[in-house]
DNA sequence: TAGGCCATCTGGTCCT
DNA sequence: AGGACCAGATGGCCTA
């Protein structure tokens, strides 16, 4: 049985189960995680196969799977088949180039040198081998892509952890997490801005207040950072009112889809934002992105 | 059952 | 040539 190497990075049991299931659905073979199988292992495997091919016919089967019919289960069958056909044509062309019966000895000699050189660079491979190599590359690419997405999810999970938690422990979806973070960062910047501008520290402890003091003073809740259309925000959303201040609608979180940076405009009762004494007016709102 | 979310596969493109 | 990144497609799971 020829081995099919699929390497995994760090993987949870659950994700491995999903992957296994997916692979079994698509490729119909039992999968075992194999770590650190090298390309040379692969090549070795294919070399064995190629040697076998040289000795036998085109129609040999290799491996514990469905052999050449594995791709029949793949979705992009037409594309694969056209690629296979293309590679088959190419390989057959190469093979034709190698064996020319009407050559002089000198020509044969130079040709054999050329042949040796050619073979060392681009070996003539049977269509079966070409398909298998192509399949192997695809599997490796799938593996990389899977790991890449896992890394992305890990980063997203880290982001979730640094965001304010919800009492009901609702797990934010990906898009909610990103929007939440976006609004949260915006709110923090606004808070810091106000903290600096209004010298809030003096309102708290006199001189050594921290930014988190200012944030807690603002009474912002996690739900305040959720976009309005978030399912998690339906019950709990309430526009934040930091320091009972008025943040004009133009000071809503910047829309990250927009090309231009939004201008943040904090107004205080129609006065300059440096006015620290009286803040009232319409409620601010962390608008949806 | 429809719709949302997610994981995965896949081929194309760009970069090193 | 091979890897990273991306977007589209697909199917599974869950919930209203």
TrEMBL record:
Biased composition (Low complexity): 243-254, 270-289
Coiled coil: none
SMART domains linked: HLH (SM00353)
Boundaries of every BHLH domain copy: 136-188
Region annotated Disordered, chain positions: 39-127, 237-289
Record-level GO cellular component terms: nucleus
Gene Ontology terms describing biological process: axon development; positive regulation of transcription by RNA polymerase II; sensory organ development
Ranges of biased composition (kind: Acidic residues): 40-51
GO molecular-function term, one example from the UniProt record: protein dimerization activity
Position of the signal peptide: none
PROSITE patterns: BHLH
Biased composition (Basic and acidic residues): 85-97
Keywords linked to the UniProt accession: Developmental protein, Differentiation, DNA-binding, Neurogenesis, Nucleus, Transcription, Transcription regulation
Segments of skewed composition (Basic residues): 112-124
InterPro entries with a match to the protein in the record: bHLH_dom, bHLH_transcription_factors, HLH_DNA-bd_sf
Domain of life, per lineage: Eukaryota
Protein name: BHLH domain-containing protein
């Amino acid at each position: 049985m020829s081995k099919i190497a699929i390497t995994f990075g760090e993987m949870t049991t659950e994700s491995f189960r999903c992957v296994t299931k997916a692979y079994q659905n698509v490729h119909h073979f039992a999968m075992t995680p194999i770590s650190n199988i090298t390309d040379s292992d692969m090549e070795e495997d294919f070399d064995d196969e190629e040697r076998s091919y040289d000795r036998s016919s085109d129609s040999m089967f290799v491996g514990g799977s469905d052999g050449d019919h594995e791709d029949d289960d793949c979705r992009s069958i037409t594309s694969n088949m056209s690629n296979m056909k293309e590679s088959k044509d190419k390989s057959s062309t190469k093979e034709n180039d190698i064996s020319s019966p009407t050559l002089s000895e000198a020509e044969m000699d130079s040709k054999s040198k050329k042949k040796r050189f050619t073979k060392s660079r681009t070996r003539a491979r049977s269509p079966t081998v070409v398909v298998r190599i192509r399949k192997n590359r695809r599997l490796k690419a799938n593996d990389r892509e899977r790991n890449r997405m896992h890394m992305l999810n890990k980063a997203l999970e880290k982001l979730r952890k640094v965001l304010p938690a919800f009492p009901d422990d609702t797990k934010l979806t990906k898009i909610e997490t990103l929007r939440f973070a976006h609004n949260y960062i915006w709110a923090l910047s606004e808070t810091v801005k106000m903290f600096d501008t209004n010298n809030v520290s003096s309102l708290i402890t006199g001189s050594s207040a921290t930014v988190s003091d200012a944030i807690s003073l603002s009474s912002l809740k996690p739900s305040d950072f959720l976009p309005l259309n978030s399912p998690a925000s339906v019950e709990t959303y309430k526009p934040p009112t930091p320091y009972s201040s008025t943040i004009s609608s133009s000071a809503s979180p910047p829309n990250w889809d927009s090309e231009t940076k939004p201008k943040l405009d904090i107004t205080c009762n129609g006065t300059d934002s440096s006015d620290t004494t009286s803040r009232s007016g319409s409620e601010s709102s962390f608008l949806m992105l």
